[in-house]
Amino acid sequence: MASPDKPTSFDIAALAGVSQPTVSRALRGDPTVNEGTRKRIEAIATQIGYKVDKNASSLRRGQSSTLALLFFEDPLPDGTAINPFFLAMLGSILRTCAKRGYDLLTSFQQLSSDWHKDYEDTRKADGLILLGYGDYELYRARLQDLVRQRTHFVRWGSVELDGLGTTIGCDNMLGGRLAAEHLLSRGRRRLAFIGEASSHYPEFRDRYHGFCDTQLEAGIEPDPRLQIGALSIEESGFEAARQLLANKVPFDAIFAASDLIAIGALRALQEAGKSVPGDVSVVGFDDIPAASLTHPPLTTIAQDYNAAGEALVDTLIGEIGNHSAEIRLLPPRLIVRKTS
Amino acid sequence: MASPDKPTSFDIAALAGVSQPTVSRALRGDPTVNEGTRKRIEAIATQIGYKVDKNASSLRRGQSSTLALLFFEDPLPDGTAINPFFLAMLGSILRTCAKRGYDLLTSFQQLSSDWHKDYEDTRKADGLILLGYGDYELYRARLQDLVRQRTHFVRWGSVELDGLGTTIGCDNMLGGRLAAEHLLSRGRRRLAFIGEASSHYPEFRDRYHGFCDTQLEAGIEPDPRLQIGALSIEESGFEAARQLLANKVPFDAIFAASDLIAIGALRALQEAGKSVPGDVSVVGFDDIPAASLTHPPLTTIAQDYNAAGEALVDTLIGEIGNHSAEIRLLPPRLIVRKTS
DNA sequence: AAGGCAAACGCATACGTATTCAGCGCTGCT
DNA sequence: AGCAGCGCTGAATACGTATGCGTTTGCCTT
């Protein structure tokens, strides 16, 4: 009504008795603007509620001060919840972006779609953060496209895909070792592993490797019959644990490749009348929020999602500013609760 | 290297032997462009990897095809996880945005900050989705600002704040009734409620009202000593349940105002040696993902976050297109698991 | 044969900001 | 007095797209 259109820098200029470029300079903090002039301009701007039009600004500057966060997962039954570990990371990513003056575009894609072309190309974002697991062949192809297009991006995950951009990940081998050390220190000797250990799931495979290495160093030969494949959902963990029980190969501990798997395994053990941690110790991985809510609360290997989110954002911003790409491994940490 | 700069519509125009405006029209699907011409332009565009610059496009069109999602919560101990119910909604909001051709900017704010000025004013978003609980006085002031600035927004929450924009919420009264009906049908007669029931927490208050109304209709006078305040965190539910037990007022069921509270209450009951559901039935509210993972799995009143997210996005898009504002109440649903 | 009409397209320009370059007034130095 | 240099500002323009309006062409009408 009073002001039908949003004010522009020209309006401010007119009111302040200066030219539009001076307004732009003043508001961006250019030191060539006289201090008094800047004060006057800023006062007028806040008074009439002027805000820089970020579309025009981005167009002119060639950058948008926006990052895009892409969740993707391949076998996506519609309505499926997003991986809780990634969701937990979201909070820290959001906070870090805010601190650094970036906005965050969020998107949820199927790995098989064309997500890799949709953001930086359209100039809506200066760089991409990729969070997702899935078919590693397809993933590799997408990453190659991104590298070819010189898109700025960082990725969370296994450090497997070398040369394909910057990766930040958890030291999964170390995580596996921590789990094994802990279980051994509790007197357990027949350690089972639930989770896919093939090269299609490098994170899980590394966790398993570390887990086995530590056992070997302690003079224990890991029994391959105690490794059961499972995907990172509760149901899959439940099934795998049932199968483990059905196999009748004795075991006194389970290291689950993720907390969701561990939760499913817990359920299977309890339904089978096993006491946790009396008969069987259980250790999970991730430390998702639900891990402390299980009964009994789950001992797990925590990935520090606060540090992870911050590292992703800061590394990406560095990358955009043409700083060197690097690979960063974050150390996991053992959280002892009541299942071990 | 080969193409140092990203291609523009002028490049496409030159290659196709037409003018730039024709390229723009062709790619936007303008029917005045000849079918053959469009095909040719589209072929060239995909071939050289052209993408519309959304900054320029947004600037010219005066809209960004982007929505902004704002989480906020007031007492924000740094590092706190975001409310899991809102997080669960995120997936459906993302999917709906994608379906409707919108991008989503996500942000995490403190209620006390200036979030309400930061998005639509800068033209980065066409509208706002607000998710958050908190101090209702402060909230009201913020909403008034938004209305005054004619910002497009929708809000999830209690329908309390009438006239302040469009609100979508769960029918909390009905949810309370469902909980009471269910517990009564299980033969329970001494029903407790854990959660703040003051007007500062309209959602909880409404749940409590519906809960009491149904009891009254069944000829049962709700005992005010069986209502204990609690905020929506696990710890608070734990404390409240302990207090309830300490009061020595007999009860055979607990309706918790949220699942997090219910999870805390479960823990308190089990530590006190009470059997669930043998001695005490427990019903939660929200149906967060963790609800099915408790032991025993939690009976709860589900808010359909898929429907909620879709409703929020679609209503906001309607609002942007100047369709009438409305208030929508979504029905909750009873999910019977093992705690009742 | 002349006028009318619709389809298809080009010209010019606007969106609001940021930056380059030039200009102005002034000080200080030779 | 003349000139370099500095501090500050304005004029002009570029960023890439979308759109109002006018123009061309071919075809149909009477």
From TrEMBL, chains A, B:
Record bears the keyword Transcription regulation: yes
Record-level Gene Ontology MF annotations: DNA-binding transcription factor activity; transcription cis-regulatory region binding
Domain of life per record: Bacteria
Annotated keywords: DNA-binding, Transcription, Transcription regulation
Residue ranges occupied by any HTH lacI-type domain in the UniProt entry: 7-61
A Pfam family the protein falls into: Peripla_BP_3
Protein name: DNA-binding LacI/PurR family transcriptional regulator
Organism: Sphingomonas kyeonggiensis
